[in-house]
Structure formats: C-alpha cells, structure tokens
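So, read this over?
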Amino acid sequence: MLLAINFWAVLVAAIASYVIGWAWYSLIFAKLWRKLHGIDETSVQNMQMPYGTMAVEFVTTLIITFFIGEFAVWVGAFSWLGGVVLAFWIWLGFYATTLMGGVLWEKVPVKLYMINVSRWLVCLLAMGAIIGAWR
C-alpha cells in the first residue's frame, strides 16, 4: 500500500499540523499554557530556540501523518470527510485516551490536558482532511 500514499499530501499535512501546533502554544493558548507550567514571560524571552527539539517534533509529526495516510488507504478514506472521520477515531482511540494517563498518574492539570488533547484533535482533523482530499 506504500505506493498508494500521496507523499506530497503527507508532507503538506505534516507542515499544516506543525503550524497549528505552533499557533496553539505560541498564540492561542500561550498565556494559559505558560501559567499551567509555571513559566513567566521573562523566562520565555530568555529561552534559546530549541532547533533540535523542533526538528525531532517535525519528524514525529511526519511519521504520524504517514500512518494516517496508510490508514486512509486501508479503510478507503478517499475524501476530505472520510479523512476527517478517520482522524477523529484515531484521536479518540489513541490520543484522548493515552493523554488522560498524564491526568490520572502524573497529576497533569485537567486544563493542560484539554489544551493538549484539543490541539491534537485539530491537528489530526486537518491532517485527515488534507490526506483524504488529496488523492
């Protein structure tokens, strides 16, 4: 099934997810995210850009997107809506449930869980829509 995947769609979907993640934590929920982590504005301004970490994050996002592409081929999700439905079930079955472990065992605040899990919902829906539509 590897040849059935549109690798350009995978790349664009990964970039879209990466941009959404950046906006999620840098613009939309920046203040609340920092507050929940106990990071003040001065600390953020003094931080160096973690390019290595960002590169690894992009590679992991690319891998996730590749597997959404694989799953889309396996289940026949060949439209934007099919991709969105597939992504929702992946989110519910794997992300929403797995990230809950942080709340239960690591005492991650529920608000932080909601920020993180909703970010993954939006990212996965975007990835699914792009991969499903771009056949």
